[in-house]
Amino acid sequence: MNFLTLVYAALKVLTATPSESTISKVIPPHESTWTYDGKGNGINDWYQLYPKCKGQFQSPINIDTRLVDYNSSMKIDFIGFQKLYQAFIENNGHTVQLGVEESTKPVLTGSAVDNKIYVFAQLHFHWGTDSLLGSEHSINSTFYPLEGHLAFYRKEYESFDKALNYSDGLVVVSIFFKHADEENHALDRLIKGIQKIPRYRDKSLIPGFFNFSDILPSNLNNFYKYSGSLTTPPCLEIVTWLIIAEPVNISEGQTEIFRHERANMISSKTGEYAYLNHNYREQSPLNHRRVTASFMVNSNTDQNEYIA
Ligand SMILES: *[C@@H]1O[C@H](CO)[C@@H](O)[C@H](O)[C@H]1NC(C)=O
Ligand SMILES: *[C@@H]1O[C@H](CO)[C@@H](O)[C@H](O)[C@H]1NC(C)=O
Ligand SMILES: *[C@@H]1O[C@H](CO)[C@@H](O)[C@H](O)[C@H]1NC(C)=O
Ligand SMILES: *[C@@H]1O[C@H](CO)[C@@H](O)[C@H](O)[C@H]1NC(C)=O
Ligand SMILES: *[C@@H]1O[C@H](CO)[C@@H](O)[C@H](O)[C@H]1NC(C)=O
């Protein structure tokens, strides 16, 4: 039986705003075929259409800093991130995703990625219903309310889609956002852009120009690295993850704007698209992978140190 044709009664009571019931049915098959909450095509069923989602080296993970190796010679160079770009942002039913119009994109290189060149493809976000959850990765089992993913493909492979065929095809830089009392006005343009795309498939230009520095922390030298997967279907295990340690401030009110986006699922209660108020994937075990840090993570160091 084709699950896409069924109407589902997956009920989950959400305590935080927006407090709409998520009883939902899956939208028709010509549209997006996976969801976070839908029954039959929600997180636990992704593997049915995308077998890799059951792989051994999946993302996200928890980073237990006691188990992290130290390698001081890992460096990342961010090139073209201080320039201004004309950026657009889109609600794709799973997240809000930002791209740049210019043909010359920002790039990433450095010893942490074997000095290969990776070209910026898109930036998207993961969040949750309340401030205790939302990020996909966690440090010492502590989650952040929001996590941004800057996705890059290896230049040699010419495009994002072609790079998906290679084990070193993608690099994703992860940025954590942490709740602070004050609004972070550097995020104003991004947030204004998000407010313009509340519905599934809405797309808009970011007002003015976009400066990546506005959404990056000041310290980009301290990061964790491990090998994993896309955290959404097709869950391909081709991602070098670079997780920046220092979080960026955001206010609860600013995070709330993300929670008012609509998903690619119809709520049977309202007959409208359901709120996309959480879009993080559950974590996977490390399974013998090692996480490396570019800095001394623990105060009292019983850490393995690699001398490069
Ligand atoms: C982008 O922002 C950074 C950090 O605030 C700043 O140093 C840089 O000058 C900005 N770029 C432009 C072109 O305004
Ligand atoms: C440390 O990092 C450098 C740069 O990424 C790499 O060349 C080297 O192999 C790493 N050392 C170990 C022991 O993994
Ligand atoms: C990936 O590789 C397969 C087999 O080599 C090829 O058929 C396919 O066209 C490639 N896909 C892309 C997007 O390059
Ligand atoms: C982030 O917010 C905290 C207070 O919550 C403040 O101490 C800190 O200076 C802020 N960081 C930046 C970069 O503004
Ligand atoms: C994680 O825990 C270790 C020791 O258990 C501690 O030294 C370290 O500061 C913690 N790091 C973070 C970011 O919570």
Can you describe this structure in just a few lines?
It contains 4 helices and 21 strands. By secondary structure, it is mainly beta.
List keywords for this structure.
single chain, zinc ion binding, Carbonic Anhydrase II, globular, 3-stranded antiparallel sheet, signal, 308 residues, mainly beta, 14-stranded mixed sheet, binds 2-acetamido-2-deoxy-beta-D-glucopyranose
Kindly describe this structure.
Helix content is 8%, strand content 29%. It has 308 residues and is mainly beta. The chain has one domain (60-263, 281-306): Roll (Carbonic Anhydrase II). Strands 3, 4, 6, 7, 8, 9, 11, 12, 13, 15, 16, 17, 20 and 21 form a 14-stranded mixed beta sheet that branches. A hairpin with a 5-residue loop joins strand 18 and strand 19 (273-275). The longest helix has 8 residues, at 188-195. The termini are far apart. The structure holds 2-acetamido-2-deoxy-beta-D-glucopyranose (5 copies). The site of one 2-acetamido-2-deoxy-beta-D-glucopyranose (NAG) has 7 residues, from loops. One 2-acetamido-2-deoxy-beta-D-glucopyranose is lined by residues 82-84, 211, 213.
